């Protein structure tokens, strides 16, 4: 119980410090995804990016990150018609809906970059993403696994944001 309480206080402190920081703390998961793309030297300029899911935590901020990265960006949501068409035309696909196997692998464009943000535990205990991994991996040039793909990047970015907020709070100058 103590660990959970400490974690909660840590997040609240980080959020408060970010709110008062001179530099803006970017949302963890979208920033982590951009870092992942940069790490693999993926040139995003001009890519047709599709974000499946319009949540305030991932979808919307991710769309802004992609726009800043030079992508032509489409955000889909529960009212989007012909979702398959959008997926089939995506050079870069970010899926964050929280529904296991929501995107079938055959929808993935050959050579596309697929980032699966979803993490879902099935009744049998297996953890899967929002994309049918095996089928999508056969078509994609890059694909993040679930678990072990976006999750660790989110945690790493949370640590970066915490450090940034701490530096701002204590007026630490860049070296």
Automatic annotation (TrEMBL):
Residues 27-168 form the Tetrahydrofolate dehydrogenase/cyclohydrolase NAD(P)-binding domain. This is methenyltetrahydrofolate cyclohydrolase. PROSITE patterns: THF_DHG_CYH_2. The keyword NAD does not apply. Pathway: One-carbon metabolism; tetrahydrofolate interconversion. It holds the Pfam family THF_DHG_CYH_C. Its EC number is 3.5.4.9. One of its GO terms (biological process) is purine nucleotide biosynthetic process. It is an enzyme of class 3 (hydrolase). Signal peptide: none annotated. GO terms for molecular function: methenyltetrahydrofolate cyclohydrolase activity; methylenetetrahydrofolate dehydrogenase (NADP+) activity. The lineage of its organism: Bacteria, Pseudomonadati, Pseudomonadota, Gammaproteobacteria, Enterobacterales. One of its GO terms (cellular component) is cytosol. Keywords: Amino-acid biosynthesis, Histidine biosynthesis, Hydrolase, Methionine biosynthesis, Multifunctional enzyme, NADP, One-carbon metabolism, Oxidoreductase, Purine biosynthesis. Homodimer.
């Amino acid at each position: 119980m103590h660990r959970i309480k400490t974690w909660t206080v840590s997040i609240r402190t980080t959020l408060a410090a970010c709110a008062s920081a001179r530099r803006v703390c970017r949302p963890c998961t979208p920033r982590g995804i951009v870092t992942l793309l940069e790490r693999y030297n993926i040139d995003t300029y001009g890519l047709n990016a599709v974000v499946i899911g319009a949540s305030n935590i991932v979808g919307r901020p991710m769309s802004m990150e992609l726009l800043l990265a030079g992508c032509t960006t489409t955000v889909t949501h529960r009212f989007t018609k012909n979702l398959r068409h959008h997926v089939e035309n995506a050079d870069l696909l970010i899926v964050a809906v929280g529904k296991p196997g929501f995107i079938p692998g055959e929808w993935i464009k050959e050579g596309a970059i697929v980032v699966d943000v979803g993490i879902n535990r099935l009744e049998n205990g297996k953890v899967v993403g929002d994309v049918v991994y095996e089928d999508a991996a056969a078509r994609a040039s890059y694909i993040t696994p679930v678990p072990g793909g976006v999750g660790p990047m989110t945690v790493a970015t949370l640590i970066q944001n915490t450090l940034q907020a701490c530096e701002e709070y204590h007026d630490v100058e860049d070296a």
